[in-house]
Design goal:
The chain is α/β, with parallel strands linked by helices. Helices cover 49% and strands 15% of the residues. The strands form three sheets. A seven-stranded mixed beta sheet has the order 6-5-4-7-8-12-11, with helices on both faces. The longest helix is centred in the middle third of the chain and has 25 residues.
């Protein structure tokens, strides 16, 4: 195949792919619509391929418009279309559609609603300004909403609830992957402090899987004030930049990526103060970006997450292995190791 033929084929692919960017939002809008209407919930509960007429009736939707939304999601393999009889087809659930069920075991519905809602969507319109700026660290989120995300959540209880539910969605998937892929990290841990634990979803899963652990759910006072109470978990309010409750191990999941290196080092130094010198450890569950190499589908999610940090937080970022090594060494940790799990994140174990 000559160079000219390759170029023609690449140009043809580009002409098609560019339309995916032009109308790329249609996919997430359709998924958001499905969550808001409860489409995945109704189809899952139906238990067999569900005809469009019955789906429309159950949802009280206009059938032809519902058909157009379902047609796009079937094409994207969110739902399946299967024959019911010679003349009728119905819609069935898939592993992907079950991620849209509200309150489902693997639901990501709240996270999708958070990121596709007006509050988190508006900042993306200021991404180019964010890339251009050189003299300050005001996030596009703050430009769009008047406050940084933490202050906004404190002032807006509904947003705070959605945010914590979204983090709970992610926690359920990531913690399960941690339990399955790296259970040994919790050996010998009797007390575990979850820093930035939100509504204690992650910690609840951990103490259930490892019942010898007593948990401390540590977050801002207004967050832990509405966290569920539990015999095996103590909710403690405070500021991780000031002090962290003492424990055998500190657990940070999707926390450090919200901050720049200087702030990460401050948090990690406080973690080091909170754990025993001889047997303590810090367990970090975060993305570890590949450096200068082709990335797989999971790696691409890490890159998108890094871009989201630029839009949503003032100084947040995802890090490469080299960058993780720097912040850990600067925080006084003498050794660490990284173990990939079945998630966007890896488990980083750091020791004094």
């Amino acid at each position: 195949m000559g160079d000219m033929e390759v170029t023609i084929k690449e140009e043809a692919r580009a002409e098609i792919k560019i339309w995916n960017y032009v109308f790329g939002y249609a996919k997430i809008a359709a998924v958001k619509c499905a969550i808001e209407l409860g489409i995945a919930d109704v189809i899952e509960n139906y238990g067999s391929p569900m005809p469009l007429s019955e789906l429309a009736s159950a949802l009280r939707c206009e059938p032809s418009r519902l058909h157009r939304i379902m047609r796009l999601m079937v094409h994207d393999r969110i739902f399946k279309q299967e024959p019911i009889n010679q003349h009728t087809v119905g819609f069935s659930s898939t592993p992907l559609s079950r991620c849209l069920i509200k309150g489902g075991e693997k639901s990501m519905a709240a996270f999708i609603l958070l990121m596709s809602g007006p509050t988190c969507l508006a900042p993306w319109h200021s991404l180019s300004a964010r890339v251009l700026e050189t003299d300050h660290n005001i996030s596009p989120f703050e430009v769009a909403n008047g406050k940084d995300i933490w202050s906004y959540a404190e002032a807006n209880p509904d947003f705070s609830e959605l945010f914590n539910n979204a983090m709970g969605c992610k926690a359920r998937l990531t913690v399960q992957a941690t339990i399955e892929g790296c259970p040994e990290v919790f050996d010998g841990v009797e007390n575990l402090v979850d820093i930035g634990g939100g509504n204690a979803t992650a910690l609840s899963l951990l103490v259930k899987a490892f019942p010898w652990i007593r948990g401390i759910n540590f977050d801002l006072p207004h967050v832990v004030a509405v966290a569920p109470k539990s015999d095996s978990i103590e909710n403690v309010g405070g500021d991780m930049f000031m002090s962290i409750p003492n424990a055998d191990a500190a657990f940070l999941m999707s926390v450090l990526h919200d901050w720049d290196d200087e702030e990460c080092i401050k948090i990690l130094k406080k973690c080091r103060e909170a754990i025993p010198e001889d047997k303590g450890k810090v367990i970090i569950v975060e993305a570890v970006l590949e450096e200068d190499k082709e990335v797989d589908e999971v790696g691409v999610v890490g890159l998108m997450l890094d871009t989201a940090m630029m839009a949503i937080t003032n100084k947040g970022e995802e890090r490469t292995l080299k960058e993780w090594s720097y912040v850990l060494r600067q925080s006084g940790f003498t050794r660490f190791n990284v173990k990939p799990i079945r998630a966007v994140q890896s488990v980083i174990k750091a020791y004094p």
